[in-house]
Specification:
TIM Barrel; 2 domains; seven-stranded parallel beta sheet; six-stranded mixed beta sheet; 10 helices; about 25% helix; about 25% strand
Length: about 375
């Protein structure tokens, strides 16, 4: 397949006017099948990578059902999100074990839709003071044997775990997670600057939905946000649905951290792609009005988003983030944050031939190609 006439995303130069070729399932220097795709008027971008979302189309990862996970994978790919690392909730170990086993079985079955490339355990190792919409009944101090059991259940698929580093045993937990090939993300925490910095020095390299579920950035108490900025290896997630973080703060955060470190996430719930109403969420109920989801009876407590990662990319551009920076933050950066950048997240030769054509004017999807095969075309 040869893609011609489009503006092709490039990690070093933003967008370049050049042809892009695939040879079977990977990008290559030449095309062998003779097919030509006219991408005139389009951006050619990598398939997106979401490392933090809970559900969509009425399904939730934490339900641990094969059909639910398949429906989620199908929907995500239809949105141009080709690789997923769905997040579990703060639940009992029995249910977390089922979630991990379901993910491993789905991966082995390989039945289509977006590829599941990892599992994100967003809980239960969190602070009760910043639990947000998480269920406090199941909060748990950092527990290395528990993490190892869950990683075994997931057959090595756990790639991220969110941690409140002020909890006892956190530093040992961070080091043990690294031995299991797991990246630790700081979030749902009341940690001060010193504690967060110690966690990053111990090996944590990710921050869970920056600004949400953590102390604010204060000029005398910079807390997690300041510590993340000062530790250059740290990659912060941010929810760009137009609800969780103001557009001015989105712009300031990209400027502060730099586009090479930012990660766009959706943090989407089962209500994504569904009508307004009430929905179960981690043993609780949420209510959705428009693109805002809150705990039922607690309208001040945000419960996640109802916007896909592609929708968050479009919102970032509306907020003034350059298209190339938004694309990088939704593809290459999240892939790098879980150690997958050698295979996915960019359009370089040898990587999987997964890409999306976006209309330059509207950013609407015109074609989705997954591992060399067209799966959607406008």
């Amino acid at each position: 397949m040869r893609i011609t006439g489009g503006s092709v995303f490039d990690l070093e130069h933003g967008f370049c006017e050049k042809d892009l070729c695939t040879d079977g399932s990977v990008f290559a220097g030449t095309s062998s099948d003779g097919e030509t795709v006219d991408a005139s008027g389009c951006y050619v971008i990598p398939g997106l990578v979401d490392v933090h979302f809970h559900g969509c189309v009425g399904e939730d990862f934490s339900d641990a059902t094969p059909e639910g996970l398949q429906a989620m994978a199908d929907y995500e790919l239809s949105e141009g999100v080709a690789y997923i690392c769905p997040a579990g909730m703060t639940l009992g170990e029995d249910q977390l074990s089922l979630i991990c086993k379901n993910a491993a079985a789905h991966k082995e079955k390989n039945s289509g839709g977006a590829e599941l490339v990892g599992v994100h355990l967003e809980g239960p190792f969190l602070s009760s003071a910043k639990k947000g919409a998480q269920n406090s009944d199941f909060l748990h101090d950092p527990d290395v044997p528990m993490l190892k059991r869950l990683q075994a259940d997931a057959r090595g698929l756990v790639k991220l775990v969110t941690l409140a580093p002020e909890q006892p045993g956190s530093m040992e937990f961070i080091q043990a997670a690294a031995e299991e090939g797991i990246h630790v993300s700081i979030g749902h925490t009341v940690a001060d600057y010193e504690t967060a910095s110690a966690a990053f020095a111990a090996g944590a390299d990710h921050a869970t939905h920056l600004y949400n579920g953590m102390p604010s950035l204060h000029h005398r108490e910079p807390a997690v946000i300041g510590a993340a900025f000062d530790n250059k290896k740290v990659m912060p997630e941010i929810i760009c649905d137009g609800i969780h973080v103001h557009g001015s703060v989105i712009r300031a955060t990209f400027a502060m951290f730099g586009a090479e470190r930012m990660i766009l996430i959706s943090d989407s719930l089962r209500a994504t792609g569904m009508p307004d109403g009430e929905y179960p969420f981690g043993g609780q109920m949420i209510e959705v009005h428009g693109n805002r989801a809150t705990l039922l009876g607690h309208p001040e407590t945000l419960a996640g988003s109802v916007t896909s990662l592609m929708g968050c990319l479009r919102q970032a551009v509306k907020f003034g983030i350059p298209v190339a920076d938004a694309v990088r933050a939704a593809s290459y950066n999240p892939a790098r944050s879980i150690g997958m950048e050698d295979r996915i997240g960019s359009l370089t030769e040898g990587k999987e031939a997964t890409f999306v054509l976006l209309d330059k004017e509207t950013l609407e999807t015109k074609r989705i190609v997954f591992k060399g095969k067209t799966v959607s075309q406008a």
